Amino acid sequence: AKDQGRNNFQFYTSNLTDQAFAHLSMQTQIRQAIDNNEFIPYFQPQIDSIQQKIIGLEVLARWQTKDGKIIAPIEFIQIAEKTGLIIPLDRQVMLKAIHHFLRWRKQGLIDGKLSLNLAVKQLEQDDFFEFVNTLLCEVDCNPEWLEFEITESDIMTKLDEMTRKMSQLRQLGIKIAIDDFGTGYSSLAYLKKLPVSKLKIDQSFIRDLPQDEDDAVITKTIISMADNLGLKVIAEGVETMEQQAFLQANGCEQIQGYLYSKPLNADDIEIFLRQFPDQ
Ligand code: C2E
Ligand code: CA
Ligand code: CA
Ligand code: CA
């Protein structure tokens, strides 16, 4: 038994070293990829399902490697957030996304918003507002065209600080949506005080609609909660006509998901913008 214990210990340490090594190597790769300008924005349309109108585009980061491979956020966002690399990474993606967006606006291809995902790490930066302000001036972007998505759990773990920061963004004229809503335990009392204008129902509640009764109740509750608080509401991860019909019938017209489009690179979303709604 003693021997076995020793073996377990050895296995454990070498496993830990492997993990630490993988982590470090990924960190180095992300850093290099930032230097090589390899992070790019993908865009997913947000649709008013009744008017059949594009009301916005959500920006989702992708890592395009030198050999053309596209890597999804699940592979890099966590390590980027842990190491602080999320800050230059997101700035790279944001800048590119806003440039595309402003071009499409000028061409009359879109009059909705650009939604950007924001990590707490970024909001915590002392120079974040300076960055946003400078950005808005430099690129001549009306702040009303922008929306930041912040996850409910991020807000709730640092409620006071996040409320303050969100108010500052609001003062700049930028709207805020609570992302992954329903997963972060916020109470009605807090919700009323937060300087937000939209709730985004988490896709985990949408997936099994309309069959799953619990999800149906939760979704309906979030929609009426938003309604009572004077907030807009959007559902993410909508893949089927049935899900859309359920949401519409219960008062949620704003839809995002594969039903309309996967996230697309700039060239492909431009084609989508030109063709919608006549496909
Ligand atoms: P999120 O903000 O909740 O984004 C929604 C995720 O669901 C995206 O995954 C999107 O591609 C995916 N999705 C959209 N429609 C559907 C659908 O109909 N069905 C299913 N099954 N999935 C759908 P993605 O692009 O892999 O991003 C994952 C997460 O990474 C995001 O979750 C967000 O938290 C984070 N992330 C992505 N881009 C950025 C970024 O630029 N900055 C920051 N800070 N975080 C980002
Ligand atoms: Ca989001
Ligand atoms: Ca989500
Ligand atoms: Ca998420």
UniProtKB/TrEMBL annotation:
Ranges where the EAL domain occurs: 23-277
Origin: domain of life: Bacteria
Name used for this protein in its record: GGDEF domain-containing protein
Organism: Thiosulfatimonas sediminis
